[in-house]
Amino acid sequence: MKRATVALLDDILSGAYQLADLESDDYRRVRDLRDQYGDADLGFVDAAVLAVVERLEEPK
Fold first, then answer.
1. Residue 33 · residue 52 · CB < 8 Å
2. Which parts of the chain fold into alpha helices (H)?
3. pTM above 0.85, yes or no
4. How many CB atoms lie within 10 A of CB 29?
């Protein structure tokens, strides 16, 4: 594993980041985002991150 990945995992384990699970509405938003940005080949993970960011009202 690369050092940056290990450091990120260590930070997550130490509580440095807030982790958020996907909720039912997030899956709907993922579907909508993938439809909306279909030409951009938006993947599931990227759309899921955007959905959670929107739900948590974090800056994009």
1. no
2. 3-14, 24-36, 44-55
3. no
4. 19
